[in-house]
Amino acid sequence: MLQRRKFLELSSIGLSAITFSGFTSKSGNPAGKKPIVISTWAEGLNANKAAWAVLKNGGRAIDAVEQGVMVTENSQNCCVGLGANPDRDGYVTLDACIMDEFSNCGSVAFLERIKHPISVARRVMEKTPHVMLVGSGAQQFAVAEGFPLESEKLSPDAERSYKKWLEKSEYKPVINIENSGNNLKSQSAFAPNKLENGDWNHDTIGMVALDANGNLSGSCTTSGMGFKMRGRLGDSPIIGAGLFVDNEIGAATATGQGEDVIRICGSHLVVELMRMGNSPEQACKKAVERIIKIKGDKARDIQVGFIAINKRGEYGGYCIQKGFNFAVCTADDSNILVDGKHIL
Ligand code: ASP
Protein backbone atom coordinates (compact mmCIF):
# COMPACT_ATOMS: atom_id res chain seq x y z
CA MET A 1 0.00 0.00 0.00
CA LEU A 2 2.74 2.40 0.85
CA GLN A 3 4.68 3.47 -2.16
CA ARG A 4 8.21 3.96 -1.01
CA ARG A 5 10.63 5.60 -3.34
CA LYS A 6 14.28 5.38 -2.68
CA PHE A 7 15.58 8.88 -2.24
CA LEU A 8 19.01 10.26 -2.67
CA GLU A 9 20.92 10.37 0.59
CA LEU A 10 23.16 13.39 0.50
CA SER A 11 26.16 13.82 2.67
CA SER A 12 25.72 16.38 5.42
CA ILE A 13 29.01 17.94 4.33
CA GLY A 14 28.70 21.03 2.18
CA LEU A 15 24.92 20.92 2.41
CA SER A 16 24.18 24.47 1.43
CA ALA A 17 26.12 23.98 -1.77
CA ILE A 18 24.42 20.76 -2.80
CA THR A 19 20.95 20.78 -1.33
CA PHE A 20 19.68 23.29 -3.79
CA SER A 21 20.53 21.06 -6.71
CA GLY A 22 18.96 18.23 -4.73
CA PHE A 23 15.49 19.72 -5.08
CA THR A 24 13.49 17.85 -7.60
CA SER A 25 10.48 18.74 -9.63
CA LYS A 26 9.97 15.14 -10.75
CA SER A 27 6.91 14.89 -8.51
CA GLY A 28 5.10 17.33 -10.76
CA ASN A 29 5.11 20.07 -8.17
CA PRO A 30 4.24 23.49 -9.53
CA ALA A 31 7.23 25.59 -10.48
CA GLY A 32 8.53 27.56 -7.53
CA LYS A 33 7.29 31.09 -6.93
CA LYS A 34 8.42 33.89 -4.70
CA PRO A 35 6.90 35.32 -2.59
CA ILE A 36 4.52 32.57 -1.56
CA VAL A 37 2.44 31.76 1.51
CA ILE A 38 0.64 28.50 2.25
CA SER A 39 -1.50 27.54 5.22
CA THR A 40 -3.60 24.67 6.49
CA TRP A 41 -7.33 24.24 5.87
CA ALA A 42 -9.88 26.51 4.22
CA GLU A 43 -9.47 29.14 6.95
CA GLY A 44 -6.03 29.55 5.42
CA LEU A 45 -7.60 31.43 2.50
CA ASN A 46 -8.46 34.42 4.69
CA ALA A 47 -5.25 34.14 6.66
CA ASN A 48 -3.24 34.08 3.42
CA LYS A 49 -4.82 37.36 2.31
CA ALA A 50 -3.44 39.14 5.37
CA ALA A 51 -0.05 37.47 4.93
CA TRP A 52 -0.03 38.37 1.25
CA ALA A 53 -0.63 42.07 2.06
CA VAL A 54 2.74 41.98 3.85
CA LEU A 55 4.57 39.86 1.27
CA LYS A 56 3.46 41.74 -1.84
CA ASN A 57 4.92 44.94 -0.47
CA GLY A 58 8.29 43.34 0.06
CA GLY A 59 7.63 42.66 3.76
CA ARG A 60 9.33 39.98 5.83
CA ALA A 61 7.98 36.46 5.96
CA ILE A 62 7.99 36.58 9.77
CA ASP A 63 5.57 39.55 9.72
CA ALA A 64 3.43 37.83 7.10
CA VAL A 65 3.02 34.60 9.07
CA GLU A 66 2.16 36.49 12.26
CA GLN A 67 -0.37 38.81 10.57
CA GLY A 68 -1.82 35.91 8.63
CA VAL A 69 -2.74 33.59 11.47
CA MET A 70 -3.92 36.50 13.63
CA VAL A 71 -6.91 36.68 11.27
CA THR A 72 -7.83 33.12 12.22
CA GLU A 73 -7.19 33.72 15.93
CA ASN A 74 -9.50 36.72 15.69
CA SER A 75 -12.38 34.85 14.16
CA GLN A 76 -15.14 33.89 16.54
CA ASN A 77 -16.55 31.74 13.81
CA CYS A 78 -13.65 29.33 13.72
CA CYS A 79 -11.71 26.62 15.39
CA VAL A 80 -8.68 28.63 16.43
CA GLY A 81 -8.33 31.26 19.17
CA LEU A 82 -10.60 32.15 22.05
CA GLY A 83 -13.75 31.28 20.08
CA ALA A 84 -12.69 27.62 19.88
CA ASN A 85 -13.81 24.55 21.79
CA PRO A 86 -12.70 24.34 25.42
CA ASP A 87 -10.92 21.54 27.24
CA ARG A 88 -13.03 18.97 29.10
CA ASP A 89 -13.15 21.27 32.15
CA GLY A 90 -14.65 24.07 30.06
CA TYR A 91 -11.60 26.33 29.58
CA VAL A 92 -10.17 27.40 26.23
CA THR A 93 -6.40 26.89 26.31
CA LEU A 94 -4.26 28.03 23.42
CA ASP A 95 -0.89 26.95 21.99
CA ALA A 96 1.22 28.71 19.35
CA CYS A 97 4.73 28.96 17.98
CA ILE A 98 6.63 31.02 15.45
CA MET A 99 10.05 30.71 13.77
CA ASP A 100 12.06 33.07 11.55
CA GLU A 101 14.84 32.90 8.98
CA PHE A 102 17.56 33.12 11.65
CA SER A 103 16.22 30.07 13.52
CA ASN A 104 14.90 32.39 16.21
CA CYS A 105 11.80 30.81 17.67
CA GLY A 106 9.18 31.44 20.34
CA SER A 107 6.30 29.47 21.75
CA VAL A 108 3.47 29.66 24.25
CA ALA A 109 1.36 26.77 25.49
CA PHE A 110 -1.60 26.24 27.79
CA LEU A 111 -2.26 29.98 27.53
CA GLU A 112 -5.67 31.21 28.67
CA ARG A 113 -7.65 34.43 28.02
CA ILE A 114 -5.22 35.96 25.52
CA LYS A 115 -6.55 36.67 22.05
CA HIS A 116 -3.35 36.40 20.03
CA PRO A 117 -1.08 33.63 21.27
CA ILE A 118 0.99 33.91 18.08
CA SER A 119 1.99 37.47 18.98
CA VAL A 120 2.87 36.42 22.52
CA ALA A 121 5.01 33.63 21.02
CA ARG A 122 6.76 36.26 18.91
CA ARG A 123 7.41 38.38 22.01
CA VAL A 124 8.86 35.33 23.76
CA MET A 125 11.16 34.95 20.76
CA GLU A 126 12.15 38.60 20.63
CA LYS A 127 12.12 39.70 24.24
CA THR A 128 13.24 36.76 26.33
CA PRO A 129 16.25 34.45 26.25
CA HIS A 130 13.79 31.50 26.14
CA VAL A 131 11.82 29.59 23.54
CA MET A 132 8.73 28.42 25.46
CA LEU A 133 6.51 29.88 28.16
CA VAL A 134 3.50 27.95 29.43
CA GLY A 135 0.36 28.34 31.50
CA SER A 136 0.06 31.10 34.08
CA GLY A 137 3.65 32.18 33.41
CA ALA A 138 2.89 32.70 29.73
CA GLN A 139 -0.24 34.65 30.66
CA GLN A 140 1.68 36.78 33.16
CA PHE A 141 4.28 37.57 30.48
CA ALA A 142 1.54 38.43 27.98
CA VAL A 143 -0.18 40.82 30.38
CA ALA A 144 3.16 42.44 31.28
CA GLU A 145 3.69 42.95 27.53
CA GLY A 146 0.37 44.76 27.29
CA PHE A 147 -1.89 42.02 25.90
CA PRO A 148 -5.41 42.45 27.40
CA LEU A 149 -6.82 39.67 29.54
CA GLU A 150 -10.03 38.63 27.80
CA SER A 151 -13.17 37.13 29.33
CA GLU A 152 -13.36 33.42 30.14
CA LYS A 153 -16.76 33.19 28.49
CA LEU A 154 -17.03 30.61 25.72
CA SER A 155 -18.15 31.68 22.24
CA PRO A 156 -21.78 30.74 21.47
CA ASP A 157 -20.64 27.93 19.13
CA ALA A 158 -18.19 26.54 21.67
CA GLU A 159 -20.72 26.74 24.48
CA ARG A 160 -23.24 24.79 22.45
CA SER A 161 -20.68 22.13 21.52
CA TYR A 162 -19.41 21.85 25.08
CA LYS A 163 -22.94 21.41 26.48
CA LYS A 164 -23.52 18.68 23.95
CA TRP A 165 -20.24 17.00 24.83
CA LEU A 166 -21.09 17.17 28.55
CA GLU A 167 -24.22 15.10 27.93
CA LYS A 168 -21.99 12.03 27.54
CA SER A 169 -18.63 13.41 28.69
CA GLU A 170 -16.95 10.61 26.77
CA TYR A 171 -13.20 11.08 26.67
CA LYS A 172 -12.19 10.23 23.13
CA PRO A 173 -9.03 12.16 22.44
CA VAL A 174 -8.97 11.62 18.69
CA ILE A 175 -8.85 14.35 16.14
CA ASN A 176 -11.82 14.29 13.77
CA ILE A 177 -11.24 12.85 10.33
CA GLU A 178 -12.95 14.60 7.49
CA ASN A 179 -14.94 12.40 5.11
CA SER A 180 -14.01 9.25 6.99
CA GLY A 181 -17.52 8.53 8.11
CA ASN A 182 -16.79 8.86 11.81
CA ASN A 183 -18.77 12.04 12.27
CA LEU A 184 -18.67 14.00 9.06
CA LYS A 185 -21.69 13.78 6.81
CA SER A 186 -21.04 16.62 4.43
CA GLN A 187 -19.12 19.81 4.16
CA SER A 188 -20.80 23.14 3.63
CA ALA A 189 -19.59 25.13 0.66
CA PHE A 190 -19.48 28.25 2.84
CA ALA A 191 -17.61 26.72 5.73
CA PRO A 192 -15.98 23.70 4.16
CA ASN A 193 -14.30 22.55 7.33
CA LYS A 194 -17.41 22.70 9.47
CA LEU A 195 -19.28 19.51 10.27
CA GLU A 196 -22.96 19.12 9.55
CA ASN A 197 -23.71 19.24 13.27
CA GLY A 198 -22.00 22.63 13.47
CA ASP A 199 -18.79 21.46 15.10
CA TRP A 200 -15.41 22.40 13.68
CA ASN A 201 -13.43 19.39 12.64
CA HIS A 202 -9.96 20.65 13.48
CA ASP A 203 -8.45 23.32 15.59
CA THR A 204 -5.26 24.59 14.04
CA ILE A 205 -3.79 26.88 11.45
CA GLY A 206 -0.18 26.38 10.37
CA MET A 207 1.38 28.81 7.87
CA VAL A 208 4.74 28.95 6.12
CA ALA A 209 5.97 31.72 3.81
CA LEU A 210 8.87 32.67 1.57
CA ASP A 211 9.30 36.42 1.10
CA ALA A 212 10.61 38.43 -1.86
CA ASN A 213 14.09 38.42 -0.32
CA GLY A 214 14.08 34.63 -0.27
CA ASN A 215 13.67 34.28 3.50
CA LEU A 216 11.44 31.70 5.14
CA SER A 217 9.31 31.85 8.31
CA GLY A 218 6.41 29.96 9.83
CA SER A 219 3.67 30.12 12.44
CA CYS A 220 1.28 27.65 14.01
CA THR A 221 -1.61 28.38 16.39
CA THR A 222 -4.33 26.20 17.90
CA SER A 223 -6.79 25.55 20.66
CA GLY A 224 -5.71 21.90 20.44
CA MET A 225 -8.12 19.00 20.54
CA GLY A 226 -11.64 19.86 21.54
CA PHE A 227 -12.56 18.64 25.08
CA LYS A 228 -8.99 17.53 25.74
CA MET A 229 -7.67 16.66 29.17
CA ARG A 230 -6.76 19.82 31.05
CA GLY A 231 -3.06 20.55 30.49
CA ARG A 232 -2.79 18.45 27.32
CA LEU A 233 -0.47 19.89 24.67
CA GLY A 234 -0.26 18.72 21.11
CA ASP A 235 2.40 19.34 18.49
CA SER A 236 1.40 22.87 17.55
CA PRO A 237 3.49 24.85 20.09
CA ILE A 238 6.48 22.51 19.78
CA ILE A 239 9.26 23.70 17.48
CA GLY A 240 10.24 20.74 15.30
CA ALA A 241 6.87 19.04 15.70
CA GLY A 242 4.12 21.52 14.70
CA LEU A 243 6.50 23.85 12.86
CA PHE A 244 10.06 24.00 11.63
CA VAL A 245 11.99 26.46 9.48
CA ASP A 246 15.51 26.14 8.09
CA ASN A 247 16.26 29.13 5.95
CA GLU A 248 18.74 27.17 3.81
CA ILE A 249 16.24 24.45 2.97
CA GLY A 250 12.54 25.02 3.61
CA ALA A 251 9.73 25.27 6.12
CA ALA A 252 6.99 22.87 7.21
CA THR A 253 3.99 22.80 9.51
CA ALA A 254 1.51 20.18 10.68
CA THR A 255 -2.09 19.68 11.65
CA GLY A 256 -4.04 16.73 12.99
CA GLN A 257 -3.39 14.28 15.80
CA GLY A 258 -0.63 16.12 17.65
CA GLU A 259 0.62 13.14 19.63
CA ASP A 260 1.55 11.34 16.41
CA VAL A 261 3.24 14.40 14.95
CA ILE A 262 5.35 14.75 18.10
CA ARG A 263 6.31 11.05 17.92
CA ILE A 264 8.20 11.63 14.66
CA CYS A 265 9.25 15.29 15.21
CA GLY A 266 7.09 15.79 12.13
CA SER A 267 7.88 19.25 10.77
CA HIS A 268 11.59 18.86 11.42
CA LEU A 269 11.46 15.53 9.64
CA VAL A 270 9.79 17.11 6.61
CA VAL A 271 12.49 19.78 6.40
CA GLU A 272 15.24 17.18 6.77
CA LEU A 273 13.65 15.10 4.01
CA MET A 274 13.72 18.19 1.78
CA ARG A 275 17.39 18.60 2.72
CA MET A 276 17.98 15.10 1.36
CA GLY A 277 16.61 16.12 -2.01
CA ASN A 278 12.89 15.44 -1.72
CA SER A 279 10.39 17.91 -3.11
CA PRO A 280 8.03 19.45 -0.49
CA GLU A 281 5.28 17.03 -1.51
CA GLN A 282 7.56 13.97 -1.38
CA ALA A 283 8.88 15.06 2.01
CA CYS A 284 5.36 15.49 3.43
CA LYS A 285 4.38 12.10 2.01
CA LYS A 286 7.33 10.33 3.59
CA ALA A 287 6.60 11.88 6.98
CA VAL A 288 2.98 10.72 6.72
CA GLU A 289 4.18 7.23 5.73
CA ARG A 290 6.35 7.10 8.80
CA ILE A 291 3.35 7.77 11.04
CA ILE A 292 1.34 5.11 9.23
CA LYS A 293 4.16 2.62 9.65
CA ILE A 294 4.27 3.27 13.39
CA LYS A 295 0.50 3.23 13.87
CA GLY A 296 -0.28 0.21 11.70
CA ASP A 297 -4.04 -0.43 11.58
CA LYS A 298 -4.63 2.39 14.04
CA ALA A 299 -3.59 4.88 11.36
CA ARG A 300 -7.14 4.59 10.03
CA ASP A 301 -8.40 6.22 13.22
CA ILE A 302 -6.36 9.37 12.95
CA GLN A 303 -5.61 12.25 10.64
CA VAL A 304 -2.34 14.10 10.19
CA GLY A 305 -1.50 16.55 7.41
CA PHE A 306 1.79 18.28 6.60
CA ILE A 307 2.44 21.23 4.30
CA ALA A 308 5.83 22.53 3.22
CA ILE A 309 7.64 24.99 0.97
CA ASN A 310 11.26 24.95 -0.09
CA LYS A 311 13.74 27.72 -0.67
CA ARG A 312 12.69 27.87 -4.33
CA GLY A 313 9.06 28.51 -3.50
CA GLU A 314 7.89 25.02 -4.49
CA TYR A 315 5.17 23.73 -2.21
CA GLY A 316 3.35 20.54 -1.32
CA GLY A 317 1.18 18.81 1.23
CA TYR A 318 0.19 15.25 2.17
CA CYS A 319 -2.13 13.67 4.69
CA ILE A 320 -3.15 10.26 6.02
CA GLN A 321 -6.78 10.31 4.94
CA LYS A 322 -8.95 12.15 2.48
CA GLY A 323 -10.31 15.53 3.51
CA PHE A 324 -7.31 17.67 4.35
CA ASN A 325 -6.82 20.82 2.32
CA PHE A 326 -4.51 23.80 2.32
CA ALA A 327 -4.50 27.32 0.90
CA VAL A 328 -1.77 28.57 -1.45
CA CYS A 329 -1.29 32.24 -2.30
CA THR A 330 1.19 33.55 -4.88
CA ALA A 331 -0.59 36.69 -6.10
CA ASP A 332 -3.53 39.01 -5.33
CA ASP A 333 -5.68 36.94 -7.67
CA SER A 334 -4.14 33.56 -6.90
CA ASN A 335 -5.21 32.29 -3.49
CA ILE A 336 -6.42 28.74 -4.00
CA LEU A 337 -7.51 25.79 -1.89
CA VAL A 338 -5.63 22.57 -2.74
CA ASP A 339 -6.77 19.11 -1.68
CA GLY A 340 -4.00 17.31 0.14
CA LYS A 341 -3.08 13.98 -1.45
CA HIS A 342 -3.69 11.12 0.95
CA ILE A 343 -2.34 7.63 1.53
CA LEU A 344 -5.21 5.67 3.07
N1 ASP B 1 -2.41 19.43 15.96
C1 ASP B 1 -3.36 19.98 16.89
C2 ASP B 1 -3.16 19.33 18.24
O1 ASP B 1 -2.91 18.14 18.28
C3 ASP B 1 -4.78 19.84 16.50
C4 ASP B 1 -5.18 20.10 15.08
O2 ASP B 1 -4.35 20.26 14.20
O3 ASP B 1 -6.36 20.19 14.81
O4 ASP B 1 -3.33 19.99 19.24
Can you give a write-up of this model?
With 344 residues, the chain is α+β, with helices and mostly antiparallel strands. It has a single domain (2-342), classed as 4-Layer Sandwich (Glutamine Phosphoribosylpyrophosphate, subunit 1, domain 1). Helices cover 29% and strands 21% of the residues. The strands form two sheets. The protein has an eight-stranded mixed sheet. It has a five-stranded mixed sheet with strand order 7-8-9-10-13. Helix 2 (43-55) packs antiparallel against helix 3, helix 3 packs antiparallel against helix 4 (117-127) and helix 8 crosses helix 9. The longest helix is centred in the last third of the chain and has 16 residues, at 280-295. The radius of gyration is 19 Å and the shape is globular. The termini are close together. Mean pLDDT is 86; it is low at 1-29 and 180-201. The site of aspartic acid has 13 residues, from strand 8.
Entry keywords:
344 residues; binds aspartic acid; five-stranded mixed beta sheet; 21% strand; Glutamine Phosphoribosylpyrophosphate, subunit 1, domain 1; eight-stranded mixed beta sheet; disordered N terminus; alpha+beta; 9 helices
Low-confidence blocks of residues? 1-29, 180-201
Rg result = 19 Å
Element order: H for helix, E for strand:
HEHHEEHEHHEEEEHHHEEEEE
Oligomer: single chain
Query: Which hetero compounds are present in the coordinates?
Result: aspartic acid
CATH class bucket: Alpha Beta
User: How is the CATH topology named?
Assistant: Glutamine Phosphoribosylpyrophosphate, subunit 1, domain 1
Structural class: alpha+beta
How many helical stretches?
9
Helical proportion, percent range: 25-40%
Mean pLDDT: 86
Strand arrangement within the widest β-sheet reads 4-3-2-6-5-1-11-12
Separation of termini?
8 Å
Could you describe the largest sheet, including whether it forms a barrel? 8 strands, mixed
CATH architectural designation: 4-Layer Sandwich
